[in-house]
């Protein structure tokens, strides 16, 4: 897979999201346990409700394996209620906390020194932790060179013809890791999700005003799916679209 495609994509994404570009992702090493709890709470939850739940949890119990392993289940449920599915999620958080406390003495920092595959294996062994969650933690908490693939990134990759319909999570991840330089993976991950939410949407993508339109094969995008009403409304400054 050509790195030229990666360079073109990055050019467009930098142009669209300069604020994201200016964040120094690699230096922002986040607490892996807290990130784990946030990802458990984040699925199918609005940002506002997620933040409410995280704030409640922080204030009422504290977000650490020790505190959450010892806290009564009902207290965790009560704190994370705004995020929804609170009973199921509280059990998951408590169970993850116990394992990390008992097996790793409450400290996941040793993962930083492991190779990616070994580190992934450890994270995937925790209850309810799937490939995307493990990879988000590896990238944002431990600075590993890895590209987590969410539903937006999967869809964009298929439409751009970078992968095919049947490509697995691992195939998509490896393809993107080849086309983007390692130090751009965190930016590319966040920017592609934003691009998928606002432009290359699941329903009615804004192809008519998309800066990638000139070189995108739009695989799987039927004419009916396009948002014709929005043609030209989306303002961008990409040099690629003017080539
Ligand atoms: S041209 Fe359409 S399908 Fe291709 S990336 Fe842009 S919005 Fe997505």
Description:
With 243 residues, this protein is mostly helical. The protein folds into 2 domains: 3-24 and 148-242, Helix-hairpin-Helix base-excision DNA repair enzymes (C-terminal) (Endonuclease Iii, domain 2); 30-140, Endonuclease III, domain 1 (Orthogonal Bundle). The chain has 12 helices and no strands. It has helices at residues 3-16, 18-21, 32-42, 47-60, 65-70, 73-80, 86-104, 116-124, 131-140, 151-159, 169-179, 185-198. Helix 3 (32-42) packs antiparallel against helix 9 (131-140), helix 6 (73-80) packs across helix 7 (86-104) and helix 8 packs across helix 9 (131-140). The chain is globular, with a radius of gyration of 20 Å. The relative contact order is 0.14. The model is unreliable at 230-243 (pLDDT under 50). Iron/sulfur cluster binds next to helix 10. Iron/sulfur cluster (SF4) is lined by residues 156, 159-160, 199-200, 205-207, 210, 212-213, 216, 218, 221.
As a percent range, the share of strand residues is under 5%
Distinct helical segment count: 12
The chain-level mean pLDDT equals 88
Chain oligomer state: single chain
Low-confidence stretches: 230-243
CATH domain fold name of the largest domain: Endonuclease Iii, domain 2
Helix/strand-derived category reads mainly alpha
The rounded distance between the terminal residues' Cα atoms is 22 Å
> CATH superfamily name of the largest domain?
Helix-hairpin-Helix base-excision DNA repair enzymes (C-terminal)
Percentage of residues assigned to helices: 40-55%
Hetero groups in this structure are: iron/sulfur cluster
Radius of gyration: 20 Å
